[in-house]
Design brief:
Layout: H1 4-11, E1 16-24, E2 27-34, E3 49-64, E4 67-80, E5 86-88, H2 102-111, H3 117-124, H4 128-143, E6 153-162, E7 166-173, E8 178-184, H5 192-201, E9 207-210, H6 214-223, E10 228-231, H7 233-250, H8 258-266, H9 277-293, H10 297-308, H11 310-314, H12 324-340, H13 346-354, H14 359-362
Parallel strand pairs: 2-4, 6-9, 9-10
Antiparallel strand pairs: 1-2, 3-4, 4-5, 6-7, 7-8
Helix pairs in contact: 3-4, 4-13, 7-10, 9-10
Length: 365
């Protein structure tokens, strides 16, 4: 007979005794049942009880070495003489109707710090879906409802979930670097749930960084009109580079007009090298004037676009924020998707996104 101390230290089981053990289908099988002196009424905890039948249940436990362990458990039905309760005894080492122990659940989560779902499932002789479901429940309990009460500065961006124009929009707390909202799609509708949550908790968003998406701009203007809205300078520079690179390839080296040459090369990063917002305003307005005076349609188009986004571009001088953290998170998302070979459970994927800032449980899939 295996003593009770072994059951406690090896499997986290207290108050049970092992009557016999053996092997079946390459598994160690332990036949266990609760000790009589530990039995209590599940309702009132009284000792005045009678046994009223029993059932057998099997629970997968932590393995011994590489050998899986099954706890063949006799579960007594108890009738209480004091309160009249008539039900099965409590099983403290497993939750609800799950067929594995709580300690095995904890081991699964610990191993996912250093291994993939597939490898953990193979090592513990579990199915991929079982390991995923364990992880999903743990993530939901910890990250299922992100706290946004103290959020002041946010970044907004979208990413492609998979081919076929399937997108999600994320909102990131720029102070902590954690995703605080995931919405379906990439338009203004994708943010409706976030703004409802903001209103519900009375959160005041002070600073917002986005790219030049018209949908994001409209959403921010509608729901946070008093926030400082900064258009990410990397996206502004990209807009400039895309247009200027087209021009440079065909006309820059041939252009004799010094003013045109300066306009073509002069914007890129110089705007963000200005000391103050006043200097930046003067520089930007002068660049727009020079760009329009070139009479080159592509340069004029860029100048008009920059003029339209002028306030959001200059807002960077009011608070030096950008979507850099959001872009960094998007790179992590790409790795997450690549390692996962496609998520079949959309809710699980969202929970993984909420946990991305926690390196302990998101390094692998």
């Amino acid at each position: 007979m295996i003593n009770s101390s072994f059951l406690f230290f090896a499997f986290g089981i207290n108050g049970f005794q092992c009557n016999s053990f053996g092997d079946k289908d390459s598994q160690i099988v332990l036949n266990i049942q609760k000790r009589m002196d530990k039995m209590r009424c599940p309702c009132c905890k009284s000792r005045h009880i009678i046994r009223n039948g029993y059932v057998w249940r099997d629970f997968k436990a932590v393995p011994i070495g590489h050998i899986p362990v099954v706890l063949h458990t006799k579960i007594q039905r108890i009738k209480c003489k004091d309160c009249g309760c008539d039900m099965q005894e409590e099983i403290h080492f497993a939750h609800g109707k799950r067929t594995y122990t709580a300690r095995l659940e904890n081991l699964v989560v610990d191993l996912l710090d250093i291994a993939t779902i597939k490898s953990v499932a193979e090592y513990l002789h579990l199915t991929w879906d079982t390991v995923k479901d364990i992880h999903k429940r743990r993530l939901k309990s910890r990250y299922g409802n992100p706290n946004i009460r103290n959020v002041k500065s946010i970044g907004i961006d979208e990413f492609a979930v998979r081919k076929g124009h399937v997108y999600k929009t994320i909102v990131v707390d720029l102070e902590t670097g954690r995703i605080i909202y995931v919405g379906d799609g990439k338009g203004a509708d994708a943010l409706k749930g976030f703004w409802r949550k903001v209103d519900h908790y009375g959160v005041v968003i002070e600073h917002i960084a986005t790219d030049l998406s018209k949908a994001f701009i409209a959403s921010v203007m509608e729901h946070a009109p008093l926030a400082v809205h900064v258009f990410d300078h990397f996206h502004v520079v990209k807009l400039m580079n895309d247009a200027i690179d087209k021009l440079r390839s065909r006309m820059y080296h041939e252009e004799k007009d010094l003013n045109r040459r300066n306009v073509i090369k002069g914007m890129r990063w110089l705007l963000w090298m200005q000391v103050t917002k006043t200097h930046a305003e003067s520089f930007l307005d002068e660049w727009i004037r020079q760009a329009r005076s070139t009479k080159v349609s592509l340069i004029e188009k860029v100048a008009n676009t920059i003029a339209a986004y002028r306030s959001g571009i200059l807002a960077w001088y009011d608070c030096h924020i950008s979507t850099a953290k959001v872009e960094g998170i998007n790179n992590k998302i790409k790795v997450l998707k690549r390692n996962a070979y496609g998520f079949r459970d959309d809710k699980y994927f969202e929970l993984r996104l909420y946990a991305l800032h926690d390196r302990r449980i998101t390094s692998f899939v």
